[in-house]
Design a protein that fits this description.
The complex is a heterodimer. Chain A is an alpha+beta fold. In chain A, 33% of the residues lie in helices and 22% in strands. In chain A, helix 6 runs parallel beside helix 9 (243-256), helix 7 packs parallel to helix 9 (243-256) and helix 17 (463-480) packs parallel to helix 18 (500-520). The N and C termini of chain A lie far apart (69 Å). Chain B has one domain: Class I glutamine amidotransferase (GATase) domain (Rossmann fold). In chain B, 22% of the residues lie in helices and 22% in strands. Chain B has a nine-stranded mixed sheet with strand order 2-1-3-4-11-10-9-6-7, sandwiched between helices. Chain B is globular. The chains are: A alpha+beta, B alpha/beta.
């Protein structure tokens, strides 16, 4: 019988390769791949390894700047902080494994990000974790939440790297598909930064560390497909971590790298031996021969396919000249680490897999790297949200504030971070709890401020502005510490890109990140993309997590969040805002429609941050804390809790806010969008000049709840000693930034006019017990 | 003084311990690998925090068999100074150089937080120069810190004044509310009969510098050095360059105890 012409020439035998993709592969090979090759191709052509759907979009991100030493493309990015030191940073997702097995999923997520950092020759100095779960009252959330936190603690505590920050946000869209994004920051001597250097044919290829087992097979393709009710059957795709082994690997590698005997080093992560060998071969512009029979196994009966695709943890691939092999193996033996010489570098541009000399796979390296297709898809815009439906104003604002402070998205995170060792290494100057954490760099006068941010509610309503705000808020948190933002690592968590809506969200968010990073002069040096975050067709809210590192030249000037001394003056740096759109307050009030996220004027944002940073560096600030979820009232309350002292607001300050003339300083989106983007070299942009514009949509000054709980951007609550006030005012005028006097520090109550009068005890209590 | 800081596979507080001994107190301190057995050149051996041999089986259960422990034992029997911090405490208990044992925390979970500890006795040089009753604010970070000893053992160590530190409230009162892990009799620190072997669960090395959240840990180092006739480096207190843990305001005594930052130029990654 004749085959109908409509039927494709070749059918793809692999679920994660389309017929068209499979056709291309066969064409290029001139034959059909065998089963081992098919597994390798499917892994390397997966979104997780090949960035099929995101590569084209990611080109829009600003990745260059005067400090950048290593941008995207290596295991992690690196920026220069002088004193011969580099800061190395990277964030990565481990969402799907954590959805199936939260403890090991999260633990190995931490293990993987640590390896990315020390593979570069950097010593990890801090970990942060950005978590997203469904509603806290759901049983599945409790199970996932508990497992993830325990897993992170299990790995990070043992390895001795302080977990100093991160955030957690609860939203129904994550109920089945939680997010676990781990970020690691390391420190390297400039001359010791390790990159995959071109290796010579004949160089030996070593695999060091754990023996290879069947765990994690298909992890890469698993991470590049939607989850469904059969997720429990995917447990074998989840790896199992051993932090003790990783600690040995870390110390052994950091001791070995400075000797220069290693030509290239690559950790075995997603797609295990397959991706690491191919990446090393590709970077060196070479080929590689690997004999799987020489790889130590954890179990018997493993096929070449198993060995090549296993994602067993705590393994490293090294390339070194043959004469160095003996010394290097002895070095690892001293650290009680096993190593196998599994192959050698070739100059034929082929990756050839042997099994005891028998060839079982032979593929051209480019086919697995450069020739991975990059799709540009048609996005479909979702209509902008209508203005929010506002609840009737509460008559008891105090009770409302307490409810907000106790909400899972605002309340104390102590139950989480007390499980993490955040003081090990003895460098943590500001611990997790309020805004950005700060770790000092011994041997210098410097310190690093670290934060991760992203409000998925904003991103769901407006992916572009949501992403802009994520960058702005991260930088604002650093500015509160007096730190200059120097680098971003991002983790883009989205739904299935093959759906036009999800693809549009991804594209919009990337544009938002690019705009905000350019405006604030901070490059994106590394990152990770996690798509297909859908379960049974339900996608998560778009979640572009922004991890940002800031530099304090003189750490003695670091500023905390908590109010410090009685009779210090409390001020609002930035504009008066009253936008209720997308606020935690609206969400709690159960509003049907949350409306659009608050407006953002990046010029003004930058001016506010410049003032805050300058004031901090001049020693003018006693405290600084940014207004985010929960708005001005929550920010003030947090300053009180952090400082263990009360707040006495001036009633007239409230009054003056209500009749503030918005036309003087409302952000103007038209102007913002008309402005050409800054040059990619990210040269400094001067402070903003005040521009006249129409009031922002959603501003409702007549409403007390909007003034107190609205989440308008570019606002920082600062406090200063009375004798510093004049100087501070001069500084703000100079930068054309508004400064509003709110009241003063003191007493043991949180009091503001007749509308708010609470004891510090009940305020702290409401905030502390939110997660329990 | 000359300090040996023992490094087991999985030890992870060796670097900051060396840093504090060398850079804050100007002493000589060397890392010593767990397979080395010669401690003759040292006045004091420190077993620092971490997860020696992964704390597999039980915290310290495998570390006690490391070659260096034979030397530590000889060292201890020879009335030389042995100092265990956190994991080091657990190892010394497993090695039988201190009485009792460590159980998993009462909460069954790892706890990292700040605690107050009351100095109970002057039996050991590590606390000899601290006024008994003084309260120290120190960080803890452990999963197995619930001290336990059979009643008769507890009675004898109490009688001999071997309980050197107890978890307490800010005002020094001993209460369950102040006990982070369910430790018997709120024991946070312990010494042997001779007083030359001392160990505690809190991390004094993480609280010995002005720019960190507390520097109460200095008291232990200073007591030890003073007892040994050494002059530790001390800098005048000032109110500048201060940040409290979670921004919590330090008490007035703490204000007074804090000193300005003295950056020390040395290989930061070392």
């Amino acid at each position: 019988m004749t085959i109908p012409a409509t039927q494709p020439a070749v059918r793809s035998p692999h679920p994660s390769l389309s017929d068209a993709e499979y056709g291309t592969i066969c064409e290029r090979l001139g034959r059909q791949p065998n089963v081992v090759e098919l597994g390798m191709l499917a892994a390397m052509w997966s979104e997780h390894c090949g960035y099929k759907n995101s590569r084209a979009l990611l080109k829009r991100l600003p990745t260059e700047g005067p400090r950048v030493v290593q941008g995207p493309g290596e295991n992690a990015g690196a920026v220069d902080i002088d004193d011969g030191l580099l800061v190395v940073l990277k964030m990565e997702s481990h969402n799907h494994p954590s959805a199936v097995e939260p403890f090991q999923g999260a633990a190995t997520g931490v293990g993987g990000i640590l390896r990315d950092i020390f593979t570069m020759g950097a010593r990890p100095i801090a970990l942060l974790d950005s978590l997203r779960f469904g509603p806290l009252d759901a049983d599945r959330t409790r199970y996932l939440f508990g497992g993830v936190v325990a897993g992170i603690a299990h790995y990070g505590n043992c390895i001795g790297v302080p977990t100093v920050g991160g955030e957690v946000f609860f939203d129904p869209s994550y109920a089945e598909n939680p997010l676990v994004n781990a970020m690691c920051v390391g420190l390297a001597r400039h001359d010791e930064l390790t990159r995959a250097r071109a290796s010579a044919p004949g160089d030996a290829v070593l695999v060091v560390g754990a023996a290879t087992g069947r765990d994690g097979i298909h992890g890469a393709t698993f991470a590049s497909a939607e989850l469904d009710d059969a997720r429990e059957e995917r447990r074998p795709a989840v790896q199992v971590g051993n932090p003790f082994l990783e600690k040995l690997l870390l110390e052994a590698c950091l001791e070995l790298l400075p000797t220069g005997s290693v030509r290239a080093m690559q950790d075995l992560g997603a797609a295990g031996l397959t991706s690491s060998s191919i990446e090393v071969a590709a970077r060196g512009g070479r080929g590689m021969r690997i004999d799987v029979a020489r790889v130590s196994r954890r179990e018997t009966g493993m096929t070449p396919y198993d060995v090549m695709l296993s994602e067993s943890q705590e393994r490293m691939l090294l390339v070194l000249p043959p004469e160095a092999v003996e010394a290097v193996r002895a070095h690892f033996a001293r650290w009680e680490l096993h190593s196998d010489v599994v192959g050698e570098i070739a100059d034929d541009g082929l990756i050839r897999v042997l099994d005891a000399g028998q060839e079982v796979a032979c593929l051209p390296v480019p086919l697995l790297t450069d020739e991975v297709p990059a799709y540009v898809r048609e996005g479909k815009a979702t209509p902008p949200p209508a203005p929010p439906t506002l609840p009737t104003e509460p008559n008891d604002l105090g009770a409302t504030l307490l409810r907000l402070l106790g909400s899972p998205n605002i309340c104390s995170r102590e139950p989480i971070f007390r499980r993490y060792d955040h003081t090990v290494q003895a460098n943590t100057m500001i611990e997790p709890g309020f805004g950005a954490a700060v770790v000092r760099i011994r041997g210098t006068s410097k310190a690093l401020a670290l934060t991760t941010d992203c409000n998925p509610r904003y991103c769901a309503a407006d992916p572009r502005r949501g992403a802009e705000i994520a960058v702005a808020e991260a930088a604002r948190n650093l500015a509160c510490r007096g730190a200059e933002p120097i680098a971003v690592t991002d983790c883009l968590n989205f739904g299935n890109p093959e759906r036009p809506e999800a693809y549009w969200q991804l594209s919009e968010s990337i544009d938002g990140l690019a705009t905000a990073c350019r405006a604030l002069g901070v490059p994106i040096v590394s990152g990770n993309v996690s798509l297909y975050n859908e379960t049974n067709g339900l996608a998560i809210a778009p979640t572009p997590i922004v991890g940002m590192v800031g530099l304090l030249e003189d750490r003695a000037r670091v500023v905390g969040s908590g109010f410090r001394a009685e009779s210090d003056i409390v001020l609002l740096l930035g504009r008066i805002g009253a936008e209720l759109g997308c606020s935690e307050y609206l969400a709690l009030s159960g509003a049907a429609n949350l409306g659009p996220p608050p407006a953002l004027d990046l010029d003004f944002e930058r001016a506010v941050q410049d003032v805050c940073r300058t004031a901090a560096c001049q020693g003018l600030l006693a405290s600084a804390h940014d207004c985010s979820e929960g708005g001005l009232a929550v920010a003030l309350a947090e300053c009180c809790i952090a400082g263990g002292v009360g707040f006495e607001g001036n009633p007239e300050a409230l009054a003056s806010m209500r009749d503030a003339d918005l036309t003087l300083h409302a952000p103007d989106d038209n102007v913002r969008q008309a402005r050409p983007p800054n040059p990619p070299e990210l040269g400094g942009v001067g402070g903003a000049s005040p521009r006249h514009a129409a009031p922002t949509l959603g501003m409702d000054l007549a409403r007390m709840d909007a003034l107190l709980f609205g989440e308008s951007q570019s606002r920082i609550v600062v406090s200063c000693r009375p004798d510093h006030l004049a100087h501070l005012e001069a500084l703000t005028t100079e930068h054309a930034v508004t400064l509003h006097r709110l009241g003063q520090v003191g007493g043991d109550r949180f009091r503001w006019g007749d509308s708010l009068d609470l004891s510090l005890k009940e305020v702290a209590h409401a905030w502390r017990d939110g997660l329990s | 003084m000359k300090f040996a800081v023992a490094v087991f596979p999985g030890t992870n507080c060796d670097r900051e311990t060396l840093h504090v001994l060398r850079d804050v107190f100007g002493q000589t301190a060397d890392p010593v690998w767990h397979e080395d057995t010669d401690l003759a050149a040292y006045d004091c051996v420190v077993l620092p925090g971490g997860f020696a041999h992964g704390d597999h089986l039980r915290a310290g259960a495998i570390a006690r068999f490391s070659p260096i422990m034979r030397a530590v034992e000889r060292f201890a029997r020879g009335d030389r100074l042995v100092w265990g911090i956190c994991n080091g405490f657990q190892v010394l208990l497993e090695a039988g150089l201190l009485p009792g044992a460590m159980l998993p925390n009462a909460g069954r979970a790892f706890v990292c937080s700040w605690v107050y500890c009351r100095v109970e006795s002057a039996t050991t040089p590590f606390t000899a120069r601290i006024t008994p009753g003084q309260v120290l604010r120190l960080p803890i970070a452990h999963g197995e810190g619930r001290y336990y000893a059979p009643p008769e053992t507890l009675r004898s160590i109490e009688r001999r004044g071997q309980v050197a530190l107890r978890y307490c409230l800010l005002d020094g009162r001993i209460a369950d509310a102040a006990n982070p892990n369910g430790a018997l009799a709120n024991v946070a620190g312990l010494c042997n009969e001779g007083g030359n072997v001392f160990a505690l669960m809190p991390h004094p090395e993480r609280a010995s510098e002005p720019e960190l959240a507390s520097q109460d840990g200095r008291a232990l180092f200073e007591s030890l050095l003073a007892a040994a006739g050494e002059r530790p480096l001390l800098s005048p207190p000032t109110r500048d360059a201060i940040v409290g843990a979670h921004g919590v305001r330090p008490s007035s005594q703490e204000w007074a105890r804090r000193a300005p930052l003295q950056p020390i130029m040395r290989d930061p990654t070392a």
